[in-house]
Write a structure and sequence with these properties.
The chain is of the alpha+beta class and 268 residues long. Helices cover 21% and strands 19% of the residues. It is globular.
Length: 268
């Protein structure tokens, strides 16, 4: 069923939904309220309504919905889980009842769409960015939901998925925020992790031979630091997001934030 304002061209739309809206069982809403009570008390601030987000992508005449949900929440034949992660405690991911999935559904239904605040927010109408959002979904870093394993300063959740996809696909998020007086926990974490990837990618691009700078006439740096080099044999091409010199990494000190890199330290 059409939900966006325009299905005739490529687009990426963002929806802000009140946490727990439309759920048959109030578990999510109540747990969210408890979390906000504790967070507000810890931060000595007033409580705020919480929001989660999802993306709707129109491309090549098809409509796609991208969201984070339990892996067992797959009621539609058109819904596909492209990657999975643990909920709460890493070792619990062995049970499907404690795993979340990144769901990508073609013409998927959004049960709580009627509760969306402000309707769809058009992020882009460019074909390339719409394709990029879909292509990136399977490479989302599947850290444990509710924890900060990536040291991004905030928990990892559905809002992290949305902001990570938008940032990685070239969308500007500087002026983007949840509805007035609301909060979207996890949103900043997605932006932080995406920025790490962009920083590392810039370092790798500096290794490519280039012509002298037209303004100064000086040649580019021909002796970059080995730590900026892309690790050979990476199983997740283009997704290693940062340089990490701690023991236990590969010879170049690379760590794959996606958790899917097959590299091992040299000689081990």
């Amino acid at each position: 069923m059409p939900t966006g304002p325009d299905q005739t061209s490529s687009s990426v739309d963002l929806y802000w939904l009140p946490l727990g809206a439309g759920d048959r069982f109030p578990t999510v809403a109540w747990s969210g309220r408890l979390y906000e009570v504790l967070a507000a008390a810890s931060g000595r601030r007033a409580r705020a309504p919480l929001f989660h987000s999802l993306l709707e992508v129109h491309v090549d005449g098809k409509r796609w919905v991208i969201e984070m949900a339990p892996v067992w929440h797959v009621a539609e034949a058109s819904r596909t889980v492209v990657c999975e992660g643990a909920v709460g405690v890493p070792w619990l991911r062995r049970s499907r009842f404690f795993r979340y999935g990144v769901h990508v559904s073609c013409d998927g239904d959004i049960p709580d769409l009627s509760h969306a605040v402000g309707g769809p927010r058009r992020m882009s109408s460019k074909d390339g960015r719409a394709h990029a959002v879909l292509d990136l979904a399977a490479g989302f870093p599947t850290s444990t939901w509710g924890l900060d394993e990536l040291h991004a300063g905030e928990m990892w959740n559905s809002n992290s998925l949305t902001s990570w996809l938008l940032a990685r696909s070239g969308h500007t998020l500087l002026s983007l925020s949840p509805p007035v007086y609301g909060r979207a926990p996890g949103w900043s974490a997605g932006r932080v992790v995406a920025a790490r990837h962009d920083t590392a990618a810039s370092g790798r691009r500096s290794l490519v031979p280039a012509t002298p700078d037209l303004a100064t006439g000086k040649p580019p740096n021909q002796n970059p630091s080995p730590g900026n080099a892309k690790p050979p044999g990476c199983a997740v091409a283009g997704r290693c997001a940062t340089v990490d010199s701690r023991p236990g990494r590969n010879a170049l000190g690379w760590r794959c934030w996606s958790g899917r890199c097959s590299l091992r330290p040299a000689g081990r």
